[in-house]
Structures are given as C-alpha cells and as structure tokens.
Amino acid sequence: MRKVASVAKTGKASAVQASGQCVCGAVRFEIDVPARWAWHDHSQTSRHAQGCAYATYVGSWRSRFRILEGGDSLTRFEDAEARTARSFCARCGTPVLYERAWAPTMVNIPRALFAERTGREPRYHMSIDEQADWTYAGEPLAPLKGYPGVMWERPRRKARRQPDGMF
To answer: Higher confidence at residue 147 or residue 6?
Structure first.
C-alpha cells in the first residue's frame, strides 16, 4: 500500500455536481453530473473490499472527478494480478475509489458515499455468476415483533403430509 498524493486533475467543473465523502469527512470529492454509468458488482473481490453482499459503484470520467479535500489522506492498494487499484481513507478506512488498468480514463466510486443523485441509476449487474448464496433476493419480509424497524424472513412452513390411504 502507498499514499496517494493526488488521484485526479483539478479541472473546470460543469454546472451540476454530486459530492461525496468518506465516513470521517477527511476525504471530500465531487463528480460532474450525470455520471457515466452505475452498476452493482457481485464479484467476490468487491464483496471483500466493501464488506457487503455486493458493491454499487458510480463510474465517472477521470476528467469529471475532483478531490476537494483530503487527497493526502488516501491510501492506495494495487492488485497487480487483477490490474486494479483501490484507494481508501487512511483515517477511517472508507473505500473511496476503484480503478481498473483497462479503463484508465474512468474512476469508480461507491454509490453510498454520495449524498445527492448522480444522474445514473444502477441498472447493470456485473459478475452475477459470483453472487453470494446468502444475498437477499427479494424474499417476503415481515416486521419482527418488539423490534421497530427490523424486518425478517419468516421460516418457510413445511407442507403437511397427507396420511396414507386418504383419497
């Protein structure tokens, strides 16, 4: 891992931006809206890097991405085999950027770091064949009694067996 002095050029901003930040607020950034695209990444690598069932990213042209504050707080991990790099806040550990060598003009930012709309809804699913078998897939949920705001998946009832010799 190494420190990242600056990830993006400081360019002229468009009329509309979406801003984001890490958990502790040390790293602040913005992109010009609309983002290039947005997607859900179900790959094992992204699940491990983000610590979740799948990661949702917003892709932006590098020229439309700016670090406003805390560029010196970014630490970078480069995976030579995968030809990817992930930058995160050295202070709080928040993943901030995901870059791929085969797309040098793009940066990918976790969607959850933005407070505003980015101009793109995540409509694509990448590496769906690597989806974890424990990922929530839309099963019906019900409120858990005594725990406001908690929903749960009720266990499935076994079908009753008909006694032998009936009809």
So the answer is: 147
Residue type, 165: G
CA distances, 117 to each of 16, 34, 120, 121 (Å): 11, 9, 8, 9
Residue type for position 9 = K
pTM of the model: 0.79
Alpha helix segments (H runs only) across 30-142? 44-50
Identify the CA nearest to 20 among candidates 122, 88, 110, 106: 110
Asked if 115 contacts 129 with a C-beta cutoff of 8 angstroms, the reply is no
Q: Is the dihedral of CA 122, 127, 129, 134 positive or negative?
A: negative
Nearest to 74 by CA among 55, 89, 84: 89
**Cα–Cα distance, 63 to 113 (Å, whole number):** 19
- Cβ neighbors of 156 (< 8 A, separation 6 or more) are none
